[in-house]
From TrEMBL:
Subcellular location: Nucleus, Nucleolus; Nucleus; Chromosome
Major site of localization recorded for this protein: nucleus
Region spans: Disordered: 443-489, 594-690
Name by which UniProt lists this protein: FACT complex subunit SSRP1
Protein family according to the UniProt entry: Belongs to the SSRP1 family.
InterPro entries membership: HMG_box_dom, HMG_box_dom_sf, PH-like_dom_sf, RTT106/SPT16-like_middle_dom, RTT106/SSRP1_HistChap/FACT, SSRP1-like_PH1, SSRP1/POB3, SSRP1/POB3_N
Record's compositionally biased regions (Acidic residues): 459-477
Top-rank lineage group of the source organism: Eukaryota
DNA-binding segment(s): 530-598
Record SMART domains: HMG (SM00398), Rtt106 (SM01287)
GO molecular function, one term: nucleosome binding
Gene Ontology CC: one annotated term: nucleolus
Basic and acidic residues compositional bias, start-end: 619-630
Organism of origin: Manacus vitellinus
Length: 690
């Protein structure tokens, strides 16, 4: 765990750069300082008078003289040099000093074990096994160490039990002794998931569930958070246990956070299992023996008094909807991101807490799936990147102002410009290729609105009403359906708007970022057919369009339909029934007109069929006469060569293939062939053929 050690005249301060935990070592408490060579260069070990041990490594060899002089001058302490034994022997002597177990060979230590890292100690016949708390941030962790203890000849002393007692006296082994201060029954826990009874002991917290039990020492708790849910009806209570502190284990899953979910309406009366004098002496007025109030307030109040840490709540940030959090997704799970005064926290799966002092930069990126949202990326100084996606575009202005006020480095703002982009600029840059056409289409819509004749007949006579957002239609974009659902504008109104905006072929829904298709059914349509009746909403809209325009001067077409949808939605049932009756009357008139139109269409169709049959009969008769003419020409071809040449221009093939000639001309030709007239000359035949 990287950090910074700052020696001073009053002592030394070490701040962990990952967890933010601060170790403060007073100069008056220092008892010994040891300098030695370790795996990562050189290390410094500090022992205090009360038995605590602090070890730091990563020093350079040249820094020994500076530290030695500083210790002599300000701490009156000699910095001793002691090397570790590297013989590789596994037989030696165990010495207990303070909170350290030292395994020595001769006078040189081989390794040291901080007993505060021991989680369990078990004994065998001649064996003692030590188990350790795990550090999830380390690539390799030490699980356990076994010591063989040879039997001795001394009576009444068991060396194995003596070894175990020395370890347990300093180890961080939780043992539930005595009664709990108070118990909270069946609390809803999000991580680890389930319902747990929480028993509050003086030094640790005990979670008792149906399958798992957990014990959390108060010394391992780093931070407490109390966060309101976005629905304003629930509260999150978060206990952070990050870094070296042992996580909660559930099988192979480990949890560094304990998250409880409370309802604001749930109250409780609590009585502590202590007398009033003990409560006053231990908690100094922070708790009383009898308390009552909301369940989340009681839990947070008890935890604050026992852990002795402040509870962090959201600051002054307010999102677009007025909530103190932002809805987003992290690692394919939806959750809430809370901007705090000194960091960000995301709940709940998986929980993430990022402090401002460990952030390298933040980045606002366009959404990968839709233009109505953006991603918020955070990269820490250690190189870890967190991406919170699917944030509503309306949250951009509030979040940008918050990040800018906290003086965080914004990557995509540019190093030289350093200027805040306006919300509109960011929104435009977040659009797809169709959005270049969007602004022009808006302007054209305004011009059409000013010049168009918005009569009731013009907008109500549209017959193409196939667009319906309520249906599962592949041709209609999902964005259109969502917009229609949110705004309340009926589908036929959107279809009419789309046709008006782009000639009725393909229309871009204003502000939706996608192009949707309006099916056209005008091909082969009879202009004399009755026009489809308007719905109740369209009748009302045509009657009130001018009033809406006068109440909102300069309103665009899109906003006009939005406003009309809101007014129609808010209209009482009685008023809507009036327009429903008008629509029903129009529908009956339409059905009556359609029946009359259908009867007329059938009569016309019958006349057309008779005409076609008559024409086919005439063509068949003319084809038979042509065959007869061809046979006569063939029989007389041997008498006159000129006639044969003439007949070649009026053969059977010529007559049957010449469909473009009229029936009257064919009749005259056949009559001429049947008469006993002299054969025509070749010139006449040629001219007639031409």
């Amino acid at each position: 765990n990287d950090g910074r050690l700052r020696p001073s005249r009053q002592g030394g301060i070490f701040k962990n750069s990952k967890t933010g935990k601060v170790d403060n070592i007073q100069a008056s408490e220092l008892a010994e300082g040891v300098w030695r060579r370790v795996a990562l260069g050189h290390g410094l070990k500090l022992l205090t008078k009360n038995g605590h041990v602090y070890k730091y490594d990563g020093f350079r060899e040249s820094e020994f003289d500076k530290l030695s002089d500083f210790f002599k001058a300000h701490y009156c302490l000699e910095l001793a040099e002691k090397d570790l034994c590297v013989k590789g022997w596994n037989w030696g002597t165990v010495r207990f000093g303070g909170q350290l177990l030292s395994f020595d060979i001769g006078e040189q230590p081989v390794f040291e074990i901080p007993l505060s890292n021991v989680s369990q100690c078990t004994t065998g016949k001649n064996e003692v096994t030590l188990e350790f708390h795990q550090n999830d941030d380390a690539e390799v962790s030490l699980m356990e160490v076994r010591f063989y203890v040879p039997p001795t000849q001394e009576d009444g002393v068991d060396p194995v039990e003596a070894f175990a007692q020395n370890v347990l006296s300093k180890a961080d082994v939780i043992q539930a002794t005595g009664d709990a201060i108070c118990i909270f029954r069946e609390l809803q826990c999000l991580t680890p998931r389930g319902r747990y009874d929480i028993r509050i002991y003086p030094t640790f917290l005990h979670l008792h569930g149906k399958t798992f039990d957990y014990k959390i020492p108060y010394t391992t708790v780093l931070r407490l958070f109390l966060l309101p849910h976005k629905d304003q009806r629930q509260m999150f209570f978060v206990v952070s246990r990050k870094g070296l502190d042992p996580p909660i284990k559930q099988g192979q899953t480990r949890y560094h956070f304990l998250i409880l979910l409370f309802s604001k309406d749930e109250d409780i009366s609590l009585t502590l299992n202590m007398n009033e004098e003990e409560v006053e002496k231990r908690f100094e007025g922070r708790l009383t023996k009898n308390m009552s109030g909301s369940l989340y307030e009681m839990v947070s109040r008890v935890m604050k008094a026992l852990v002795n840490r402040k509870i962090t709540v959201p600051g002054n940030f307010q999102g677009h909807s007025g909530a103190q959090c932002i809805t987003c997704s992290y690692k394919a799970s939806s959750g809430l991101l809370y901007p705090l005064e000194r960091g960000f926290i995301y709940v709940h799966k998986p929980p993430v807490h990022i402090r401002f002092d460990e952030i390298s930069f933040v980045n606002f990126a366009r959404g990968t799936t839709t233009t109505r949202s953006f991603d918020f990326e955070i990269e820490t100084k250690q190189g870890t990147q967190y991406t919170f996606s699917s944030i509503e575009r309306e949250e951009y202005g509030k979040l940008f102002d918050f990040v800018n006020a906290k003086k965080l480095n914004i990557k995509n703002r540019g190093l030289k410009e350093g200027m805040k982009q306006s919300y509109d600029e960011y929104a435009d840059s977040d659009e797809d290729q169709h959005d270049a056409y969007l602004e022009r289409m808006k302007e054209e819509g305004k011009i059409r609105e000013e010049n168009a004749n918005d009569s009731s007949d013009g907008s109500g006579e549209e017959t193409d009403e196939s667009f319906n957002p309520g249906e599962e239609d592949d041709d209609v974009a999902e964005d259109v359906r969502e917009f229609q659902k949110e705004s309340g504008v009926p589908g036929e109104a959107l279809a009419a708007l789309a046709r008006k905006e782009n000639g009725g072929r393909r229309a871009k829904a204003l502000g939706w970022g996608k192009v949707f298709s309006i099916s056209q059914s005008k091909k082969g349509k009879d202009p004399n057919a009755p026009k489809r009746p308007m719905s109740a909403y369209m009748l009302w809209l045509n009657a009130n369009r001018e009033k809406i325009k006068s109440d909102h001067p300069g309103i665009s077409i899109t906003d006009l339909f939005k406003k009309a949808g809101e007014l129609w939605k808010a209209m009482s049932k009685e008023k809507k029934e009036e327009w429903d009756r008008k629509a029903e009357d129009a529908r009956r008139d339409y059905e009556k007109a359609m029946k009359e139109y259908s009867v007329g269409s059938k009569a016309d169709s019958h006349r057309g069929e008779r005409s076609k049959k008559k024409k086919k009969k005439q063509e068949k008769q003319m084809k038979g006469k042509g065959d007869k003419k061809g046979a006569t020409s063939k029989s007389s071809s041997s008498k006159s060569p000129a006639k044969s040449m003439s007949d070649s221009f009026k053969s059977k093939e010529f007559v049957s293939s010449d469909e473009s000639s009229s029936a009257e001309s064919k009749k005259e030709d056949s009559e001429e062939e049947g008469a006993a007239s002299p054969p025509p000359s070749s010139e006449d035949s040629a001219s007639g053929s031409d």
